[in-house]
Amino acid sequence: MLNPEVYILAIESSCDDTAAAVLCNDKVLSNVVANQLVHTQYGGVVPELASRAHQQNIVPVIDAALKKANISKEQLSAIAFTQGPGLMGSLLVGSSFAKSMALALNIPLIAVNHMQAHILAHFIDEAGYDKPEFPFIALTISGGHTQIVRVGNYFDMTIIGETTDDAVGEAFDKTAKILGLPYPGGPLVDKNAQLGNPKAFKFTKPKVPGLDFSFSGLKTAILYFIQKNKAENPNFIDENINDICASIQYTIIEILMDKLKMAVKETGIKQIAIGGGVSANSGIRNTLKEAYAKYGWKTFVPKFEYTTDNAAMIGIVGYQKFLSQNFENASVVSKARIQF
To answer: Are 134 and 278 in the same domain?
Structure first.
């Protein structure tokens, strides 16, 4: 019989945030994230610098997570870590530490798919947040991924639509760069958009068949739009920054919603859950919350801290895998690319 109190130490190191969390069953006891500011001056994540920063951060972050959870390492039931997808150098730091610690403590090792974790973050026991019922549709949107996933159960996930080129998060960040906003620019586009008119400027939505997405054409259209208007008025961006951001954000949200409507029509599933870093965007969150009144969808928006990369979401997958005794040995390898 399983111990009713399962303590999972979770480690997330897929990109530029070093994160550790401790869960007791499906409750988060601690969720610690160390951001890497070193990338700001380069306008994007530099993989080599990211892996070095993970090496510096991982011990203090895990120590902080254990202390905040008020448990000792000897109380841990298992260690879960991000296997992929992500930057290989960053992933290796987390996996190597997880393997060593699990071996030293003689406890199970659990490998977690980062994208599954974004979806299953909805199953963290958090006051005021409902959990979706199976089956549901998940819209996973981040800097590296844009996917519509049919979720049958905790580990029955099928991608029914995805981007054919750029991810939605990249579209936000590249747009911000075109506008001269500092990295990471996505949140700044959102901030300015809240003060602007979303219908001030019109951008053509790409025509992509089925449930797939494309954002490269939109990025190019935005670039040409800015170049044309700056040629006529050098102060165009400064004078219209809020309206530009609002119009771009409105277009991106329309693209996402069009595909979700199609997915609901094709599957007959009216439960929609969003996850991934871009789900922190206020426009997307508000639009999805309004979908119940508009379309009769039951929508699930995770707590803000569980949207961007974090270890709590790795821990909830670790807990579910622990219950089914789905463990790995030390030969498990990190993978920059990984499917469900």
So the answer is: yes
pLDDT band at 3 (very low <50, low <70, confident <90, very high): low
State whether 165 and 108 are in the same domain: no
Same domain as 23, residue 90 = yes
Domain extent, residue 36, equals 7-122+307-323
Is the per-residue pLDDT at 293 higher than 80?
A: yes
Please check the confidence at residue 41 and state whether its pLDDT lies above 60: no
pTM score? 0.91
Query: Taking all residues of the chain, what is their mean pLDDT, rounded to a whole number?
Result: 92
250 inside domain: yes
Residues 104, 147 share a domain: no
Whether residue 296 is found in the same domain as residue 311 = no
Answer whether residue 43 shows pLDDT above 70: no
Q: Three-state SS across the chain?
A: CCCCCCEEEEEECCCCCEEEEEEECCEEEEEEEECCHHHHHHCCCCHHHHHHHHHHHHHHHHHHHHHHHCCCHHHCCEEEEEEECCCHHHHHHHHHHHHHHHHHHCCCEEEEEHHHHHHHHHHCCCCCCCCCCCCEEEEEECCCCEEEEEEEECCEEEEEEEECCCCHHHHHHHHHHHCCCCCCCHHHHHHHHCCCCCCCCCCCCCCCCCCCECCHHHHHHHHHHHHHHHHHCCCHHHHHHHHHHHHHHHHHHHHHHHHHHHHHHHHCCCEEEEECHHHHCHHHHHHHHHHHHHHCCEEECCCHHHCCCCCHHHHHHHHHHHHCCCCECCCCCCCCCCCC
Q: What is residue 50's predicted lDDT score, i.e. its pLDDT?
A: 66
Q: Would you say residue 331 lies in a domain? A: no
Q: Which residue has the higher pLDDT, 187 or 35?
A: 187
Q: Specify the CATH number for the domain of residue 59.
A: 3.30.420.40
180 with 272, same domain: the answer is yes
The pLDDT score that the predictor gives to residue 35 is 67
